[in-house]
Amino acid sequence: MAGDLESEGRRTVVRVLPDGEDAKTLGVVAELYEWLADSGVGRDDVLVAVGGGALTDAAGFAAATYLRGIAAVYVPTTLLGAVDAAVGGKTGLNLLAKNQIGLFRHPRRVVVDVDVLDGLPEHLKRDGAAEALKAGLVGDPGLVDLLGEEGLDADLEEVVDRAVAVKVRIVEGDFRDEGQRLHLNYGHTVGHAVEVAAGTSHGAAVAVGMVAAGRASALEAGFAEEDRQRDAIRRLGLPVAAPGTDRGRVLELLALDKKRDAGGLRMALLAGVGRPLVSNVPSATVEAALTAVEI
Ligand SMILES: NC(=O)c1ccc[n+]([C@@H]2O[C@H](COP(=O)([O-])OP(=O)(O)OC[C@H]3O[C@@H](n4cnc5c(N)ncnc54)[C@H](O)[C@@H]3O)[C@@H](O)[C@H]2O)c1
What we know:
It is a single chain. The chain is mostly helical. It has helices at 2-7, 26-38, 53-65, 79-85, 114-118, 122-139, 141-150, 156-172, 188-198, 202-221, 226-235, 247-256, 283-292; strands at 46-51, 71-76, 109-110, 265-272, 275-281. A hairpin with a 2-residue loop joins β4 and β5. The N and C termini lie far apart (47 Å). Residues 19-21, 24, 51-55, 57, 77-78, 80-81, 84-85, 88, 90, 92, 99, 116, 120-121, 124, 127 line the site of nicotinamide-adenine-dinucleotide (NAD). The site of nicotinamide-adenine-dinucleotide has 25 residues, from α3, α4 and α6.
């Protein structure tokens, strides 16, 4: 890529960041600032971030803050990055908690090479597919059908286009995460707790979290499509339960959830596929949701 830009007469400098979450630290970003300065990168230059969601989160933060902001272009190389992390303008670094530092700022452009995504190892495809399915459940019933019928064999260009369209539509109405953007948390309340308590991958945890949220949705909002959701999750090779996970630990983590308030646990729910809402959920419903995923 740098060679292509050089052949167009543009000067490029290239730096490799640490892998995955190791990139999302203030220390790595501080080193990046110094390198940008030493390399003579100025206001009119562009930072092109090529990598997974962790890398675009970290590089996006650096671009947003270096010289009070230079343009960023994201080239997500994971399906999760393409359908989720690169879209919506959230950047993030980890401090005491994940994504504790960050700001809202869109990249100038996002470029997705579907051939790269097609070649991903299956576990990375599955992780991204969980977020694509979530996008479908929240805002595109046809995407749920596509993933439910074809699983990981679905045309990734269509999957990315449709999932991104849902996220863009929601983010456009709520850039700063004060209202309907919470709908994108569907499956993530229990999902995050399962990710920590059971040590599963993010995608697998979100899949389990969606089954739990489906049960809570049935009890609180009349959701009648739990089977449709569960079938699609299974078709993607993702888990629908997390047996053996410590229920007490999950409840503890849910209690710490920053979205908790006096009325109970605040969760994104579905009244139907494509009909999201946010509601405070009583503890009896939380217990039933955990039972639904064998926790
Ligand atoms: N900003 C947002 O709105 C947002 C949304 C969702 C997730 N995120 C963040 O995204 C991160 C998760 O993203 P992720 O799942 O892409 O994780 P990641 O960036 O850690 O990448 C996962 C692994 O895949 C490797 N990888 C990347 N591209 C590859 C390729 N083409 N082939 C083979 N391996 C490849 C990476 O090196 C890494 O080891 C988390 O830090 C999360 O907080 C941000």
